[in-house]
Protein 1
Amino acid sequence: MVLQYLRGKSYLQTREDFQNPGSIWPPTTLILHFSVNRIQNQRKMGLCTELNILCLFGLWLMLLLGLSSSLPLCTDSTAPLTPKQPLTFCPYNGKVCCSSFKDFQLQRQFQSMNISDPACASIMKSILCANCDQFAAQLFETGSKPTRRVPVLCNSTISACSTQSSSAANNFCGKVWDTCFNVSMNYSPVTPSLEDSYGEPSSSTFSKLTDQWNSKSDFCEVHGGASGYDSVCFAGDPVSLNNNSTVIPPSGLCLEKVSNVTYTHMVGHPDGSNRVFLTDQIGRIWLATVPKMGSGETLVPTLFLDLSDKVYSDYLLGLMGIAFHPNFVQNGRFFVSFNCNKTKWGGCSGKCSCNSDVNCNPSNFTSTYGFPPCNYYSVISEFTANGTASAPSLATVGNPLEVRRIFSMGLPFENNHGGQILFGPSDGYLYLMMGDGGGYGDPYNFAQNKKSLLGKIMRFNVDEIPSATQINELGLWGNYSIPKDNAVYEDYELLPEIWALGLRNPWRCAFDPKRPSYFLCADDGEDTYEEVDLITKGGNYGWRVYEGPVPFNPSQSPGGNTSAYSINPIFPVMGYYHSSVNQNLNSRGAPGGDSGGAAIIGGYYYRSWTDPCMYGRYIYADFYGEAIWAGTENPENSGNFTSNLIPFGCAYDSPIQCSIIPGSPIPDLGYIYSVGEDNNKDVYIFTNSGTYRIVDPSRCNYICSNVNSAAVAGPSNCR
């Protein structure tokens, strides 16, 4: 069986979102827009609905707790934008965290400060304009403590691990004091009191720094800070990173074959042991112990749970993913994402994604696959390992009885339904990656429709479950609640489940375990381009207005079109054109012919030291098994990536010998279905010919020197 015949887009990154008017005092509380019905529904749920400082402060803290911001990110966790109109007050170009309206607000705020001294006025203007910096989330420390009204001012301390330019070595905090300590200003943002840190000071009072601070050292103890590996500071100008390293790609990727069995997904056991859970497409979950590197042993799994009576499996459908609750070791909860057929299983039911809210009439719907819409469903079910052993971590079998239905949605077509699920490492919420529902070119434009869940990444709270009455009143698709910091709080037109939109068929996403703010998703393209996207809150990734960086012209549009000018797309950070790979697919009996065919398979940030030259790079592959890439961020923490095709081979001492493509030195992997990771952060490749693991490059006679490794990833103690 072939799982998911995929497609996608890729490169660069821009975004403008028309920011809603809000407070001009950093880190501005949001002016939330709700319809009367939304407010009433949230009140029924007991959610915060009063537009006051305390309420919004609570919502803001829910967003900020535990986040690590080590890439360009705004204080509201959205991606920086490239404004369609240049800023006129703040001297920032390119990707910024201000719209023209916010720029005007900052200008008004600066004017209200009424600073008479030109030198001090210039410094205070630069401090206000730091709100527009593409690294605003780091400058205002949104990830570790209540957000500051003043950015972290460089105090001349710079870590050896810092990726920031040499300007961070300047004592800008001292310069602020020396220039402004005896200058009167109104509404000073550098007040020592935290009581007004989340909005405009409550009264208009002229003051000097010396009225509020005893000394320069006191002032800089609060407002000063250093630049480190995953932190930046403000030196008076837009933050810039060093870009003086040369990307040295690995000489090759060495694989060993550890199983002849085809799996589609892997999750490390939540107890942190060397055990893993594996899934296959027909609906079975397996438990196995990972063989020790170099032992010559193979994966020998035992059956943990068989759901094949519920799962409908064929060419494009089946068990799509599993995710274990962050507290599984104590509560035994785990979740399975799969497809079902309502004519084959009585439990296959739910709301149809083709409905009047999205301009789709099922009675007029024409399917190219010969079945009516919503015959097949995308389902997330909760199961438990409780009761099968003295403790969940000791369970070797799962309970086959469904605890509850988390999500269920009828699909318009058979293809492009994604289905991966995973828990966010910082927030503990469940993410669901959903495709556009299929059909050529997303004919109903679901991916851009903010009232459709197709072509979206969704985010659920599965710890707070509403009553059945509340679920019905709120129009939810299952047993979950809405996280209080989902993207709807910035864009009230979105369905509340949505975290990101504009995706065609996301196939394998992963958070970087070292930097959880890095969330990469491979998105399968249509005819031209395969892409990797850096996912951020509320981000629109362009499909079907764009296929990667290329404008897409749909052949049919019964659901209407979206204009390119009306959206602010975030373009891919990595990817490849179909024409660049797989030029001779006919020789392998695959579709695509000599024109090239492609389907991206997303992977992981490689965080194992088994291959030091791969450490810190993002691995992704093509479905047809002849191309694997390593994406390297350069400079680090910039969000800019360089991709390199890398050779790969099979270890001479592989536990199972690999087949070789005739006339080629590379192993015949067959079709790559997915990529997995164990608790040691070793990475596996799952194909129709078996399961492969990345091993020490020397076992394939590839060379990895310490110099090469350091040149790519920096000092080991920084990582």
Protein 2
Amino acid sequence: MEEEEEVVRRNGGEGGGGITAAMQSHQYVHLSAASVQGWRNYTSQAVQLLDLNRNILDSYVLDFFTEDLWSRLNPKWTAVLDKFSPGDLASFLQNGASIKQESAWPLSLLAFLAASHALSLPRKAVSSVNPLLHYLSQQVQTGSIKLNKPEYHEISRNVENKSEIEYRDENYLPDYSTAGQHKLLQHVFRRHLKPKKQHEVARLAIVAAQVARCVCDGVMVDVGLGQGHLSRLLAYGHDVRVVCLEAEDKFIDGARKFDHQLEKAVEKMTRKNTSLPLLPPGPRHAVCHLQPNMDPHTFTKLLLLMFPPVILLVMFFFYHIFSGVHYSITYLGMLAMMSVTRFSWQVITGVWPDLQSRGEVCGLLGLHTCGDLAPTLLRIFTSMPACQAVVSVGCCYMKLTTASEENPGFPMSNFVRCLPGHALSYESREVACHAVEMYTDRLSLGTDNLKVHCYCACLEEILVKHWPHHYHAGLRSVNNANHMDFSTYAKQAVSRLQDVVLPEADLTSEETLHNLTRWQQVVVYYSLRLLLAPVVEAVVLLDRLLFLHDNGLEGILFPAFDPQLSPRIHILVSVKPTNKL
């Protein structure tokens, strides 16, 4: 494990240490020409750490017994880790927490712990948009950074007796540490939203609105909108013109339904209080499938296939409205609006009266865009002149295509692609989707809620023994499994596997009973994998910033969500500079 100790030494020395200190101080990443070498060093060290620990990373805790995963660990580590209580493990996962030590730890374990924490991106949510404003001030012409308050920002919760507008300082991102429905999202915007989604939508809308006003003439294209909760708040609550692209018709139908419900609710309020300002234009929706390797000509062909009646008007747009800027997402926005309104120029200008004065620019937006969709947005952003900004929160890293594919989701950058050992397995990308903070809370609660990991691993060993074709089978989720004995849990978990009848002898065998006593080792192993999860995510996200740098663009990455509510917390923002032309 000398290599691991070297990673820590280098991280604390020249090149790595400065970056780590800056991250801990500022809580965000701004990758620019001045800082790129430092972030390359950082990314290289993170890749090295992951490559050194593939034996842990490229495995599933489900296979703990079938593959004897405990034996993969350094015996000097297991001698220490075997004595850990759940509370000790919780401290182990928390950066800076102290752990009671009965004996000296091996240096390799200390190095593993220190390197894992040092090479994880900051995970404490920022309290304001100041990091974003600082970045925008360096990219956009002086005087463009301003906090225009939307006309229709917040309606009082007490809608039965009173409706009022409450303006807020948009620099502020509220602290959402309390449970339940927070007050930034008023009654009409809170409908159909659980607290987690409220938290994400409220915070990202503030960021996206600021970017839209600064560099996109108030126009954003929301890709993969789902039910349209973010677009709804951005359009009606922040007065941003939003075009929504979604691959599923059913989501478009649902989003339109919720838009209509909001408009009806506001109409009802307006009848009670005529002093309320007019509601801004709502989002416009269209079905669209974006591909990672989509070039401008293919993109235009897609538009014509989506909206065949508008070919002549498309030509009119191309040659008379946008003065030679032929291929952009903006056209898709125009056509998307045409698809849901009457086919005439009067309707278009009625939806966006200041369309021509805004210019032919827009921004791209994606909240928890799955797998390759986030990289696709970055590629469209870099290749389409009209796209002036991208605001992206990725998720589902395990669904990323890899280097064996054309235009892979990972790696994207030339630098990471050339790093030895940069490949990330499906298993490693999957664990990167889990939040350390959520599991730390479970560990703090004690033993009763932790034994399910062991139940799953014991059941997997029985299944593989008798039914090898059910290796890693999709088992039924069992509620309150921690309150059941193993036999009861196992029978419920396999109830959907029609050819499986678990032998009672295996459920109560001496081997199974012995394995069940090893539940704490299973929890330790899972915790070791989870400690590396933020490092995997750091490599994926920094690869995206480095890809933007390859294309002459700077980007910023900052934690905006509470990880106790939303595991994927980092917002990536990049804009095309106007002060460097």
